[in-house]
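On clarity, I found the account of how folds are encoded harder to follow than it need be. For illustration, here is how one protein appears when written out as sequence plus structure tokens:

:::
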Amino acid sequence: MRDHRDAKAMARAMREALAERGLTITHSEALEIVARQFGTDNWNILSAQIGREEAAADPGGIAFEQAVPIVRIFDVAKAHEFYLGFLGFAVDWEHRYGDNFPLYTQVSRAGLRLHLSEHAGDATPGGNMCVYMKGIRAFQAELIAKNYRYMRPGLEDEGTRLEVTVIDPFNNRIRFMELKQP
């Protein structure tokens, strides 16, 4: 079965089938029709989608999934106040090897997952990560509205992107970034 990556071949086959019936359309018109069949408004949008997928494909069949950073924490209550209360993450799971052992947990929000760890060897405090996202203006407004006593992050215009930077209680920096549309 063909999919959108076969769009040009499908447009060519449509033109040939129509020509056999005495109907003539341009290749451009055929591409526009095929694009609409795949639910996009026009060929340029479908072509861009195909280009992104082809660029992401590895010739060896290797595909990377989302990276999950490990963030070093020292105090569970402070980590929860920041990551759950301020940033709006939710706890997915928690693990301890026993009572009074360090915590290792996963928190997530809107597709972003982070591992928070009290284990000394898992990560170094003072880390820095970049998180690409959509909806950064709404996110920044949400953070300001929470009136978190330790931070009121601004929305910075960095030319090609908008950026909101937060620093957790353990000096780990997260730079949320949204690329501007050309």
